[in-house]
Amino acid sequence: MTTLAIDLDGTLLHPDNRISEGNRRALLALPPETDIVICSARPLRAILSLTDSAGLLPVIRAIGACNGAVIYDCRTQSVLSRATLSPVMLSALQNLLTTGWHAFGEDALLCPPGEISEYTIHEAELFGLPIQTLAADDIFSRTDIIKITLCGEAEALRQRAEILRPLLPAKVSAFFTDQHYFELVPASVSKGSTLQILTERGILRPGTIMAIGDQENDLSLFAAADLRVAMGNAVPALKQAAGYITADCREDGVAAALHHYRAAFRNDT
């Protein structure tokens, strides 16, 4: 195994937003040649803070933040690429979105007046981002919008997503990152494209890739991987695409998966 591509929420993280000691030790025990890539819907700043506080940042090779919209080289401490929703994309989306959404700018979570829901507050607190209230027209005219997130009660959001998907412009991709969050990003952006870009730039070595995830946005990661591990708490579509289903995130499923495949890491690095 040369590369481990791993999701955070619902995968490496316990529900209480921490990396357990078991998962932490499992990552630190990997052969030093293993390229660890964190692929998450979280913003870069939140990922750096989380992994640094757990003492894992020194062993991470790269990060695909905001589902791959921002790609970061941990060794050089530099952003390799940053994708934003273009003015054309934003104009098309503005005609489709009326309520129940927020946008991610460079350093803040942007929300129209009166639209700050419990889900918006939760993401802002989870990611350590300030909430900035702006008129919808002002948000959709910005040039730094990385993604737009629709949020709400699970069943209502599922129904809304079903209606919205066929109406989205071709250059916009959409996927659930959680039952309460449905994200819109440039079509060129995905967790899978993160691995492709890192390989093309020579940051990742050719070899076997293992991917571990739990949500719909991890399907592209699975498509780019040789070994696909779904968490015990993963959505059905991801479990169907997996070659192995590990334990729940509450039970250190990442550590269990790495133990299961320990021989592959020893033989392929």
Automatic annotation (TrEMBL):
- Tell me yes or no: is Hydrolase among this UniProt entry's keywords: yes
What is the superkingdom listed in this entry's lineage? Bacteria
Q: Name one GO cellular component term.
A: cytosol
The name on file for this protein is Cof-type HAD-IIB family hydrolase
- Sorted UniProt keywords: Hydrolase, Metal-binding
Source organism per UniProt: Morganella morganii subsp. morganii KT
Q: Name one GO molecular function term.
A: phosphatase activity
